[in-house]
């Protein structure tokens, strides 16, 4: 039998507002589109709608930058109010030069601008959206609601768009998850020629995030949720997606 994996983009997810129940909206859309929710489905959710439901939208007019934010903003030619928010959401500044501000977020991932974005947010140019404060907790809440409404055992992955070192373009990556193990580990197993693999550790969550983005998109498509069906994976009761972040002592580029 051929290996088959299906990806469904849910087109009828409504505009999400603060306080909306994401799990409930997903189940409603899946039923409306006759996709349904099946045992083992992986529900892939864009971080934007999670942030909106959690009230992570900020008006920069309400932000007063401190001296450090003004200093960094002058160095990278960015709005001091935005830089103030970036620093609040960060543990550490990794690089601040050539118009770029790369930080390690409080959640533990390294990215530009602490993931703060202006895209897909209603309002003027002063309105920005932050990443979910605890994406794993957000994923668990969505998973529990879907399982409660459907009786199906599913997994949830929350994604955001990232650039990659020494590569042009961006891809979606996982920032939060529930019910699914982050890696597919081939270390110690033999390949087709009998060679014992030593470093084959597949970042399964990131592969799932990138695959789902093929049907979700990040522009005017308006498809913030995808369902991946038919993929075999290892389930985990407790997940910590931050394990995908490489420890600094292993970095080759800084």
List the helices and strands and how they pair.
Blueprint: E1 6-9, H1 22-32, E2 42-46, H2 47-53, E3 57-59, H3 67-76, H4 80-88, E4 90-97, E5 100-105, E6 110-112, E7 127-129, H5 135-150, E8 155-164, E9 167-178, E10 184-185, E11 201-202, H6 204-216, E12 225-229
Parallel strand pairs: 2-8
Antiparallel strand pairs: 1-12, 2-12, 3-7, 4-5, 5-6, 8-9, 10-11
Helix pairs in contact: 1-5, 3-4
Structure overview:
The chain is an alpha+beta fold and 254 residues long. It has 2 domains: 6-54 and 134-246, 2-Layer Sandwich (60s Ribosomal Protein L30, Chain: A); 58-128, CofE-like domain (CofE-like fold, Alpha-Beta Complex). 26% of the residues lie in helices and 25% in strands. The chain contains 6 helices and 12 strands. It has helices at 22-32, 47-53, 67-76, 80-88, 135-150, 204-216; strands spanning 6-9, 42-46, 57-59, 90-97, 100-105, 110-112, 127-129, 155-164, 167-178, 184-185, 201-202, 225-229. The protein has a 5-stranded mixed β-sheet. It has a 3-stranded antiparallel β-sheet with strand order 4-5-6. Helix 1 (22-32) crosses helix 5 and helix 3 (67-76) crosses helix 4 (80-88). It is globular. It starts with 5 loop residues before the first strand and ends in a 25-residue tail after the last strand. The relative contact order is 0.19. The mean pLDDT is 91.
Which spans have pLDDT < 50 for at least 5 consecutive residues? none
Q: In what range is the share of β-strand residues? A: 15-25%
Gyration radius, in Å: 19 Å
Major β-sheet strand ordering: 1-12-2-8-9
Mean pLDDT metric: 91
**Largest sheet data:** 5 strands, mixed
Output the CATH topology of the largest domain: 60s Ribosomal Protein L30, Chain: A
- Multimeric organization: single chain
Domains (count): 2
The CATH class designation of the largest domain is Alpha Beta
Distance between the termini: 46 Å
Continuous helix count: 6
Q: What is the 3D shape?
A: globular
Order of helices and strands: EHEHEHHEEEEHEEEEHE
Total strand segments: 12
- Structural class by sheet pairing and helices: alpha+beta
Query: Architecture of the largest domain in CATH?
Result: 2-Layer Sandwich
């Amino acid at each position: 039998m051929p290996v088959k994996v299906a990806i469904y983009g849910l087109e009828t997810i409504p505009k999400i507002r603060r306080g909306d129940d994401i799990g409930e909206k997903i189940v409603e859309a899946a039923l409306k589109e006759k996709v349904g929710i099946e045992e083992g489905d992986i529900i892939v959710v864009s971080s934007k709608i999670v942030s909106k439901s959690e009230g992570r939208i900020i008006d920069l007019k309400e932000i007063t930058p401190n001296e450090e934010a003004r200093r960094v903003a002058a160095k990278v030619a960015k709005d001091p109010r935005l830089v103030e928010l970036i620093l609040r959401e960060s543990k550490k500044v990794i690089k601040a030069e050539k118009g770029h501000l790369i930080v390690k977020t409080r959640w533990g991932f390294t990215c530009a601008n602490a993931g703060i974005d202006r895209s897909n947010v209603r309002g003027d140019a002063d309105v920005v959206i932050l990443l979910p404060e605890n994406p794993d907790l957000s994923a668990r809440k969505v998973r529990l609601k879907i399982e409660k409404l459907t009786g199906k055992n599913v997994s949830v992955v929350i994604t955001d768009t990232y650039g990659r070192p020494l590569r042009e373009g961006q891809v979606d990556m996982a920032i939060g998850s529930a019910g699914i193990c982050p890696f597919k580990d081939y270390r110690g197993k033999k390949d087709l020629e009998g060679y014992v693999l030593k470093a084959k550790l597949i970042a399964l969550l990131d592969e799932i995030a990138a695959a789902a983005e093929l049907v979700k998109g990040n522009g005017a498509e308006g498809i913030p949720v995808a369902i991946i069906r038919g993929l075999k994976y290892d389930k985990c009761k407790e997940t910590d997606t931050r394990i995908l972040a490489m420890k600094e002592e292993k970095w080759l580029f800084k």
